[in-house]
Amino acid sequence: MKITRFLIIPALLLVSCAGPLIIAGVGAVAGVWTVDEFRNDSGEILLNASPQDSFAVCQAVINSRDNITDLVVTKGSLRIEFKEEQVHYAVMIMLFPDNGNFSQLKVIAAEFGMRGRAELAKALAEEIASSL
Q: What's the CA gap between 75 and 130, in Å, rounded?
């Protein structure tokens, strides 16, 4: 009987400690999956233009669109964020350290903050690239 008590009490303590860890682990996996899905839903295009020229074209194309709200332009990091209807867009110009004549355009689109919209991101990226 004494041996059973010594086995049951530590087993219950172990289970009570593992419960929150399991819940936290499931939450972390769901968060990583959501972020990974959001990152994969982007349009990336290599541009044959300087980062400043690419950013200027991005601004012109975005300003020509209708129904734009919450427009935030960050010139220092070459980033533009805005909403169009229910979709949140982030447009970024990435630099190449060794070559200032090329830049990379990256567009991320998400609906309701989580659901990625790859087709919208690619469409906007292609529209910007064709305007160069």
A: 22
Give the span between the Cα atoms of 13 and 5, in whole angstroms: 12
- For 82-111, write each residue's pLDDT tens digit: 998 888 999 999 988 777 788 999 999 888
pLDDT reported for residue 39: 53
- Two tokens at 109? 């689109």
In this prediction the pTM is 0.66
First to last CA, the chain: 82
Please tell me whether residues 81 and 96 are part of one structural domain: yes
Based on the structure, what is the number of domains in the chain? 2
Same domain, 117 and 63: yes
Residue 118 corresponds to which amino acid?
Answer: A
**Domain of residue 54, residue span:** 42-130
